[in-house]
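Reagents: none. Just compute today. Aminotransferase.
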Amino acid sequence: MNPLYRDMKVSVFERMSLAAAQHGAVNLGQGFPDFGWPEEILDAAARAVKEGSNQYAPSRGSPALREAVAAHYDRHFGQQLDPDHVCVTSGATEALGAMILSVVEPGDEVIILTPAYDSYAPMIRRAGATPREVALQPPHWRIHRDAVEAAVTPRTRAILFNNPHNPTGRLFGADELQVIANLAVEHDLTVLSDEVWEHVLLHGEKFTPLASLPGMAERTLKAGSAGKIFSLTGWKVGWIVASPDNAALAARAHQFLTFSTAPNLQSAVAFGLGCDEWIAPMRERFSRALERMSEGLKQVGFEVLEPASTYFLCVDLRASGLDVDDETFAKATVEQAGVATVPVSAFAEQDPSRHLVRLCFAKRDETIDAGVEAMARARELFT
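Predicted 3D structure written out:
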C-alpha cells in the first residue's frame, strides 16, 4: 500500500466529529454551519433536478456557472474575468488538489504558512513534492517577509497561501499580501491562493483577492467555494480561477480527479452567485454568533483570539490559565464535558502551537449556549 496513506492519520475533523457523535457532544469542531443559506438556492437546486439535466456536466463546469463565477468576481472585485478563467470542481479541496497537481512536479518544494488546512501537505506529497512550513505565531499570526523568504530554495515552485486564514480567522493586511506578491515575482513562483472564506467577513471587514495585485494575475491560481459562500458545505461545489492558460492546465488535472460536478447543484450555484442581497445579512448573522460565543467563553474564563473572517475562533488555553496541551484538552472535553473542539496543533507538522483549540461559532444560539456551558465544564477538568 502507498505509505503516504498507510501511515496517515484520519483527518482531525472526521476524528472529532465521530467522537462528538459517539459521546453525544455538541459538535463545535467540524466547520459546518446551522444557518446562512438562502432558501431560494435550495429551491433552484430542487427545480433543476426535475427540470434540468441529470447527466454528466461538462468537465470544466456548466457554461452558466462559469459565466456566473466570472461575473461575480467582476462585480465584487473588478477583476475582468470571463468563463475561460474558470474551472468548476467538486469542492475547494478538489480544486486545491487539481491546482497542486497541475503546477508541482516531483522534487519541487511548496511553501505553506502554518497552521494550515490539513489537505495541503498530503496533496503536495502526493504530487511528489515537499511542503516547507513557515510557522505563523499567535496571537497576531502576522506574515513576516524574512521568515517566508528563508524558506525559499532553488527547488521552490509555489507558495500555497490561505486568506482569509483557517484555522486562525486572520484576514491578512495589504502589507502582508504585498509580501507574498513580491516574493512570488522576485523568485518566479506560482501562488496557489485558497480564498474560500472571501465572503465570510465579520464586523465590516474587506477582502482583496491576491490576483488583483500588480503582476499576480498570471501567476495566481485561486480556489473558491460555493459551500463556504452559501453555507452549503455538503454540496461540494468549488472552482479554480486563473489565467486562461493556467485554468486550462488545472482543468486537465481536474478531469481525472472527479471529472464533473452534479449539474443541478451547478445550476443552483449559478443562480445564487447572481444574487448579492443575501451577503450582508449572512455576515451580520455570523458576526452576532461570534459575539455570542466569544462573550460566553470570556464569562466562563477563557481567553479568545478574535477572528476577522471565517466562522472559527481560537481559545488560548495557556492564556486562560490552563496547563494542558490542545490534544489532551480536546480529547477530555469531548469525552467528559460534552463538546467537540479541534486542536490547532493538527494544522502543522513542525513547530505547532499546542495551547490553542478551534471552535466553530456558525451555530444557532441554543447550540452556542450549550457549547459554552460544556466548555465551562471542560475548564473545571483542568483547574
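Residues 39-273 form a domain with the Aspartate Aminotransferase; domain 2 fold (CATH 3.40.640.10).
Action item: order primers for follow-up constructs.
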